[in-house]
Amino acid sequence: MDKLISNNKLKLSVVLLGGLCSLAYYHLKNKFHLSQFCFSKKWFSEFSIMWPGQAFSLKIKKILYETKSKYQNVLVFESTTYGKVLVLDGVIQLTEKDEFAYHEMMTHVPMTVSKEPKNVLVVGGGDGGIIRELCKYKSVENIDICEIDETVIEVSKIYFKNISCGYEDKRVNVFIEDASKFLENVTNTYDVIIVDSSDPIGPAETLFNQNFYEKIYNALKPNGYCVAQCESLWIHVGTIKNMIGYAKKLFKKVEYANISIPTYPCGCIGILCCSKTDTGLTKPNKKLESKEFADLKYYNYENHSAAFKLPAFLLKEIENI
C-alpha cells in the first residue's frame, strides 16, 4: 500500500512539473509576461522582475477586454473587491477603488505649489486620471498629454469613463508619441510637467534616464515644477537613488514623497518632486476649497506635507546623493 501511494505521488509530481514546464515554454515562445497566464477563472496574480519573489492577487469577477497593442499587452477585468482593473503587460496600472490616491497626489502636489499654472504637460497617463484632476483648475488654459500607446486611451474611454472624462475638456490636446522625442525641441513652455509613467521596462524605459530629465528641465519655465512616478521605497531604493541623482544635476530642489495605495507593489508608490526654484514642493501655497475639489478623496492640505515624511532607512539612503 505504501509503495502504491509513493508511486501515485511520484506520478502527480511529474504531471505538475510537466504542466509548469509547458507554461514556461509557452511564456518564452510568445514573449508574454508570465503574469498574463497566472490566473485561473477566479484569480489574477501580478508577477514582475521589478518585484522578484512576491506577487499580488485580485479575485476576478469577469474578464472584460484583452488585446495586444503595438507596444504591450492590455487587459481589463472586473474584480470582486476593487472594481474594474487596468493591466499593462501583466502589471496593474489602476483599479477603480484606489486610483484616486495616486492621481490626486500626483496632480495636486505640484499644482497647489505652482502659482496660477496655465500650461501643463502630462507624460504618459493615457488612462486620463491626471487630466481629470487638472481640469478642476480654472487657471489652467492648456493641457498637453503625450502618450505613446493610443490603445490605452481608447480602452480607458470605454471601460473607465469616470477616470477618462477629462478628455472631453477643450483645453486637452493629445499627442501620440514617445515623450522623449516630443520634448526634444520644447523649451521654456510648461509651468508644470507630470510624468505619469509605468515602470522602467517596456515602453516607459526611455523616461528613466539623465537625458530625459534634461529635456524636462528645458521644457519647464524658469519657475516650473516637475513630478514623476518614482517606484516603491521598500523594493526600489536603487531606482529611487538613480532618479534623484538625475534630477539633482539639474534642479535646485529635489524631494521624494510617498503615497499609500493598496494595489501597487508593497502598498505604496513614490513621487519624485523637482523644482527650478528654492521653494520645493513640500508645502502647498493654497487650499483646495472651491466646489471643483469637493470630491477629493485622498489629497488634502495636511496630507500634502505628510507625504514627505519618510522612514529613517530611506532618508539615510538618499541624504548624500
From TrEMBL:
Binding site for spermidine: D196
GO cellular component terms listed in the entry, alphabetical order: cytosol
Annotated GO biological process: spermidine biosynthetic process
Domain (PABS): residue spans on this chain: 41-276
Active-site residues annotated for this sequence: D196 (proton acceptor)
InterPro entries listed in its UniProt record: PABS, PABS_CS, SAM-dependent_MTases_sf, Spermi_synthase, Spermidine_synt_N, Spermidine_synt_N_sf
Keywords: Polyamine biosynthesis, Transferase
Cited NCBIfam families: PRK00811.1, speE
Stated family: Belongs to the spermidine/spermine synthase family.
Name of the protein: Spermidine synthase
Species annotation: Plasmodium falciparum (isolate 3D7)
